[in-house]
Amino acid sequence: MEILVASAIGVLTATGLYLVMRLRTFPVIVGTSLLTYAVNFFLFASGRLVVGAPPILSEDATRYTDPIPQALVLTAIVISFGMTAVVVIIALGAYLSAGEDNVNEPDPEGLLEGMDEEGERA
């Protein structure tokens, strides 16, 4: 079971990192979402993987699941949803202002000609 969970977290992380390093904005957004899923899965798995156990201590304290990682995952889901919405709006604004979604495109219109390293007019 642990090998399967570790493999799933590794695949999610590797795929997320690969997509984050792409040159278009949509794969970057999907990659950050996959990275947040990997972190959430890791946090959830850190609370002990026990099937059918209650998340609180009962009379039988030998079988329970730690509720703190579950609360952390719920909080992380809400935060990642909000951050994904912010990144989508920023990417949409960049796309509408530049007319394309390439992240690392050279200056095709010559807007940065005559600028020095600090962005000041030379």
UniProtKB/TrEMBL annotation:
Membrane topology value: Multi-pass membrane protein
Region (Disordered): 99-122
Entry superkingdom: Bacteria
GO cellular component annotations of the record: plasma membrane
Keywords: Cell membrane, Membrane, Transmembrane, Transmembrane helix
Residue stretches spanning the membrane: 26-51, 72-96
Ranges of Acidic residues composition bias in the record: 102-122
Compartment list: Cell membrane
Chief location: membrane
Family: Belongs to the CPA3 antiporters (TC 2.A.63) subunit C family.
Protein name, as recorded: Na+/H+ antiporter subunit C
